[in-house]
Amino acid sequence: MDLRTMDLNADLGEGFGVWRLGDDSALMSVVTSANIACGFHAGDPLIIRLTCRAAVAHGVAIGAQVSYRDLAGFGRRAMDVPFDELAAEILYQLSALDGIARSCGGRVSYVKPHGALYNRVVHDRGQAAAVAEAVLSFDPSLPVLTLPGSVLAEVDDELQVVSECYADRAYTPEGTLVPRRSPVAVVTDPQEVAERAVRMAVAGEVEAIDGTVVPVSARSICVHGDTPGAVELARSVRGALSDAGVQIIPFV
After folding, report:
1. CA angle 16, 20, 23 (to 5 degrees)
2. Residue 89: which H helix or E strand, with range?
3. How many CB atoms lie within 10 A of CB 74?
4. Which long-range contacts (CB under 8 A, 24 or more apart) does 226-230 make?
5. Is residue 164 a contact partner of residue 9, using CB atoms and an 8 Å limit?
6. 32-88: per-residue pLDDT in tens?
């Protein structure tokens, strides 16, 4: 029998100064990949360093969670950034995180856009091309996490793209994420989140908000670090996947 495998990722290091968001230390013991904020939507040099140290100590893969330059909006506000400027900003974030990660005994092993940028590159070829250009100029071997069907997979044949799905986010019938302004955008019940994760990992599908079934082919499942009860959700997801015979390992 083929053994199914799945990566479990979460957004970490999203505090700033004295302000903290989520329980990074607890989540680090559950996930296999950490999407670490690079300072443009959250995170600062000390938080980045501490998060990288924790990831290395737990054997968790380090991913660069690159974002629009939007600290005030947590990277969730739509922006129109020129190609060259966006590519340079992505490259800046990658370089900063990788430098700190290497000083801690690790390295950046993948990239994941954050927030508004993440949703934008699903359909905007120009912004997706800027992300691809930055990643390829930094390290062509780095894969990028995105939604299935994202145009990010089409803008450059050299770019490695890995599909992911969301256990704690609602889906539209088109297979995209329900915008956060909707009251049903985030799923917070641990049992429901765990059941959704198993269905996505085993059956390759998820139920959209209108009841239709959307196909999902993914190698990684995300649980947001800022979702209420994130640690309990992540533990529920990991336990349910293991019970379903899914091996939890990094995708890189």
Report:
1. 135
2. helix 83-103
3. 18
4. 226/11, 226/14, 226/21, 226/22, 227/168, 227/186, 227/188, 228/186, 228/188, 229/188, 229/190, 230/10, 230/22, 230/23, 230/27, 230/168
5. yes
6. 999 999 999 999 999 999 999 999 999 999 999 999 999 999 999 999 999 999 999
CA distance 62 to 82: 28
Mean pLDDT of the chain: 95
Report yes or no: 12 and 61 within 8 Å, Cβ to Cβ.
no
Residue 163 to residue 213: CA distance in whole angstroms = 18
Q: Please give the distance of CA 151 from its chain centroid, rounded to a whole number.
A: 17
Percent of the chain clearing pLDDT 70 (strictly above): 99
Say how many CA atoms lie within 13 Å of 69 toward its Cβ. 11
